[in-house]
Design brief:
With 281 residues, the chain is α/β, with parallel strands linked by helices. The protein is built from ten helices and 13 strands. The radius of gyration is 18 Å and the shape is globular.
Length: 281
Amino acid sequence: MKTAIVTDSTAYLPHDQISEFNIHVIPLTVTIDGQAYDEEVELSAGDFYEKVRGNGPLPKTSQPPVGRFVELFEQLSKEYDAVISIHLSSGISGTYAGAVQAGEMVKDIKVYAFDSEISCYVQGFYVRRAAEMAKEGADPKAILDELEEMKKTVRAYFMVDDLAHLQRGGRLSGAQALIGGLLQVKPILHFDNKVIVPFEKIRTRKKAMKRIADLLAEEAAKMPLEAVIIHANQLEEAETWRNELADRLPDVKFSISHFGPVIGTHLGEGSMGLGWVKRRS
């Protein structure tokens, strides 16, 4: 059985992985000053942060139109028997729901939508594994079972320089827990039950990053891990952090990714995250 793997642009997968595993990517859109861009296609992360720097209006983000999914699925039906469509958390975007709806509208191919319940390159962990298995000829059920197993060890924590983006964009749940000290803290955030919620209040950026690193170390003591550092236009800081973490945790496999335009709209420049999953031995 031949299975196609689809994801959305918020997985921020490197182009070489997209090409190697023939992954099909549906872009989300960010609108800046009335101009709409397909992220990672018409607007890179670097250009995005350059465009929005300052005190202008917050960009708007949009999920892909259902018709775009339908068009892709119908195209894939000519070559594949099934599609596994892996998307960012349904708690912060309607993209997953759009894939489900489109899957019900196409006739010649079976579509299995998967809610990663997270985003960015941690979402990409699922996509890459699914693509590896599809390339090996695994059937959809085996792939989906593996993705559900991965959920047991997937974790991600991140901190933002300014909560205003998340609040204004309506993507932060439980914000009341932070009221009263917003300017004095660098809260660590995470996904819980598909939405972004505060994890802990930390006073400084340095201490927040240390706390996230400690959480990784706790998990690394239990199992082999693959981890990714995710940054919002802070590559040099991300590389420094990776080197520090690699020295501390030599058995963890590290990579670096980024918060692209859509997720960067809601987190803001300067955000930093760390995610991981159990590594296949």
